[in-house]
């Protein structure tokens, strides 16, 4: 199924036509959405779901979508990513397996194995070639050269891997018990730095700066920390509250606290988005330490359910976000008729551009 043939030579697809309404992706997964990733070469979106499948959608110039392919795991899919060429999709799941889907042939195969679910997969483009990193609840990080069946190396983590991100040469892993392991991928088997999260509650997401000199951490307690790797930049570290609501319009107490589910950095401007269990999405400028507001003061109206995952396309013109149950309230929160959809938002400059420095 060679639907990607010629993708590398196709012209860049523009953002969906600038309408006020976001565009809903056709034929979404049948269960909660765990992970979104755009191809680095063209406007194809990979979506991992708790229905055990990975779906690939093509996004047209005006935002219309078309399902192009689907492949399965033996359990819920927890993470998806692409290789640099945009012709392979990598995924990890609750079946303890990492799988590769070749978009040129339409074939999938297992390429990684752990002793517990694989929570995060990331493609690393090194000077020596591409490597797959997998982080698991078996408390290991493994590196795989896809030409060989066994991992190149296995790194013991202090706890279960909950989240991981890469911006070469930086790799950051967030685990249970709030441990954060920072790796310099020129020496990938030994942590460059180990620390405890600056946030007091469970780590939900880590996301590396495009400049690879730091990362953002989001927790279940409606808070984000901006953290630089080098001690000399420590004065720039800070944290802030977000994804909180007042108990009532009369009480400005911000006492309703929601998990920060995902953090995505804009590939051009270096600003970032946060999304939460409260169904809201915000864009932020870490250098100005401020929220970016558009004309309506909020980038988005609250969604009709939690927002578990987000992704910018390669140009930063399209922002994809999922609306589905994120299990933040356990089994009791999974009510019938819960929304399950993927939306595409055409990014406006005033939402994602840095604020000009104050004179």
TrEMBL record:
Keywords: Repeat, WD repeat. The keyword Repeat applies. InterPro entries: WD40/YVTN_repeat-like_dom_sf, WD40_PAC1, WD40_repeat_dom_sf, WD40_rpt. WD repeats lie at residues 26-59, 70-111, 111-154, 260-294. This is Poly(A)+ RNA export protein.
